[in-house]
Every structure is written in C-alpha cells, then in structure tokens.
Structure to design on (201 residues):
C-alpha cells in the first residue's frame, strides 16, 4: 500500500490511500481497460488507439490478450525501419479495486537499440488517473517485480526531455541521470536516460 499526501489550494493536506496491485492482463479488467483506451490512454511511446482499434479489441478481448501475452517473433522492426532483436517483455497492469489504472512493459534485458532509447521499462497511466501519483506507484511496483523475477540490480529508463512528468516519476524512484542525448527517432528532440537501482528486500 502506498500513501500520498495530496493538497489542493484551499484545503488542508489529506492522505490518499492507494490500494494498487500489479496483475497479469486478464479479461476481468478489460471493461476498464477499454474505458482507459477511450480516454486516450497509451503505454509509453505508443500512439493513442483509434476508435476502430478500440472496436476491434472490444469485439474479441480474449484475442487481444492472447496477442498481448503470447509468443512473439525473435525480431522486430524499429522506429527507423531496421530489423532488430526483440527481447522478452512482460506486460503488467496496475489495478485498483479491480479497475485498470495503468500498464507497463518490462523488458528483460537491454540491446544496443534499447540502450539508445527505450530502456528496460515503458509505462503509462490512463488520463483520468494522471497527476495523482499513480505512475510513481506503478514504477515502484515494477521495480519490485524486477527484483522478484529478473537477475538485475539496476534498470535503464529513458524519457523525452519534454515529458517532465515522466522524468519526475523516474527521479522519485531514485533515477540517476546518465545523460541527455538527441532523441534517435524525433528530429530536434532530446531525451534523458537514467539508471534506477532495483530495491533490495
Ligand atoms: C507520464 C505519465 C506516466 C505520468 O503519470 P502520472 O500518474 O500523472 O504521474 P504522477 O502522478 O506519479 O506524477 C509524477 C510527477 O510529475 C509531476 N507532473 C505531472 N505533470 C507534470 C507536468 N506537465 N510538468 C511537470 N511535472 C509534472 C507531478 O507533479 C508529480 O511530481 P510531484 O509528485 O513531485 O508533484 C502519464 O502522463 C502518461 O501516462 N503519459 C503518457 C505515456 C507516457 O508519457 N509514458 C512515459 C513514457 S517515458
């Protein structure tokens, strides 16, 4: 459980008790996941789903989950059109009281391409839950997941320099800035790369 103290301009601070858990994506959460997509939810650098995409998912949610969680080809085409290694990736959803809040993709190892941009973990929080500390909580859960499932003592995270919220999320989880480099896929944009230590038990 994670406690965040929130304060609005004319109120005294009050505690917000988060009762979030990390789950494997499952049918039980699909109605709220679809609501999140309709709000414009996206994971990391992914684009927002179109109404057509959403209708397809809604028509066969099990097929969507099978595709999300199922085996993948050994390679993928990256943002520059180059065929590169695809590493194993675990998809996790943050839920609260059975409602989908956000998601993350945890890549089990780095490749030269992921070291340039992408790192180990990509994440997103649905718009109606943003600004309340959920992404900070989601990354904290992910670091614990890494501790429990992967033999890593630190993970790399990257974010565009104009994504100040994501940089805060990483820094609040102990991120140490490695460098600021030109973004490889967006002309004129820069990105921040961080190491984040995996917490010890
Ligand atoms: C980035 C994202 C995950 C943040 O989610 P969130 O739940 O709103 O984040 P949190 O509530 O945990 O807030 C994190 C911090 O960012 C700050 N923040 C939020 N919006 C901000 C903004 N526009 N500018 C600067 N700081 C901002 C918050 O104040 C908070 O810091 P604080 O606790 O010191 O006040 C969410 O906006 C999102 O899903 N965006 C789309 C996908 C994406 O960009 N993923 C990350 C790719 S690297």
């Amino acid at each position: 459980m994670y406690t965040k103290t929130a304060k609005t301009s004319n109120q005294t601070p009050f505690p917000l008790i988060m009762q979030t858990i990390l789950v494997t994506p499952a049918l039980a959460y699909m109605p709220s996941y679809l609501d999140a997509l309709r709000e414009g939810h996206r994971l990391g650098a992914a684009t927002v789903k179109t109404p057509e995409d959403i209708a397809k998912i809604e028509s066969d949610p099990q097929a969507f989950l099978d595709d999300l969680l199922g085996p993948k080809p050994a390679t993928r085409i990256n943002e520059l059109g180059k065929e590169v290694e695809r590493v194993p990736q675990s998809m996790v959803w943050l839920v609260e009281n059975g409602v989908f809040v956000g998601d993350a993709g945890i890549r089990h190892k780095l490749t030269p391409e992921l070291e340039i941009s992408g790192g180990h973990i990509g994440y997103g929080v649905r718009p109606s839950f943003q600004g309340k500390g959920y992404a900070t909580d989601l990354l904290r859960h992910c670091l614990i997941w890494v501790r429990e499932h992967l033999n890593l003592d630190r993970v790399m995270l990257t974010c565009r320099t104009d994504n100040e919220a994501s940089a805060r999320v990483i820094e609040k989880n102990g991120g140490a800035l490695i460098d600021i480099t030109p973004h490889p896929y967006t002309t004129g944009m820069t990105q921040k790369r961080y190491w984040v230590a995996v917490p010890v038990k």
Summary: Residues 64 and 196 are 31 Å apart (CA to CA). The helical segments are 30-39, 51-59, 61-69, 112-116, 134-149, 164-172. The radius of gyration is 17 Å. The pocket of coenzyme A is lined by residues 42, 44, 123-125, 130-136, 159, 163-166, 168-169 (CB under 6 Å).
